[in-house]
Amino acid sequence: MCLSIPSQVVELHPESQSVTVDTLGVKRTVSCHLMDEPLNIGDYVLIHIGFVMNKIDADAAAESLALYKEIVEKMEAADA
């Protein structure tokens, strides 16, 4: 099973068909070679092995990110 954390596009690199995304505070550059639709700064995307697989709406991204943060908080509390 693969979990994909929503990532927000923060930079566009059209010359290399890539974008820089922010995933829970971690920035990295990923390929857009598999995307048919254009991406814009602020869009939320799902990534698999370094490729943007699809764009998701901001509400769905916010809901997923809230759940991930809740999971992390519970894991950290259990480790304390």
Question: Could you give a short description of this structure?
Answer:
The protein has 80 residues and is α+β, with helices and mostly antiparallel strands.
Q: What's the tally of helices?
A: 1
Q: Report the helical percentage.
A: 25-40%
Task: Give the total of beta strands.
Answer: 5
Order of strands in the sheet with most strands = 3-2-1-4-5
- Amino-to-carboxy terminus distance: 28 Å
What structural category characterises the helix and strand content? alpha+beta
Largest sheet: 5 strands, antiparallel
Q: Give the DSSP E fraction (strand runs of 2 or more residues).
A: 35-45%
What does this structure look like?
The chain is α+β, with helices and mostly antiparallel strands and 80 residues long. The longest helix is centred in the last third of the chain and has 22 residues.
Keywords:
single chain, 80 residues, alpha+beta, 5-stranded antiparallel β-sheet, 1 helix, 28% helix
Topology:
Elements: E1 7-13, E2 18-23, E3 26-31, E4 44-48, E5 51-56, H1 58-79
Antiparallel strand pairs: 1-2, 1-4, 2-3, 4-5
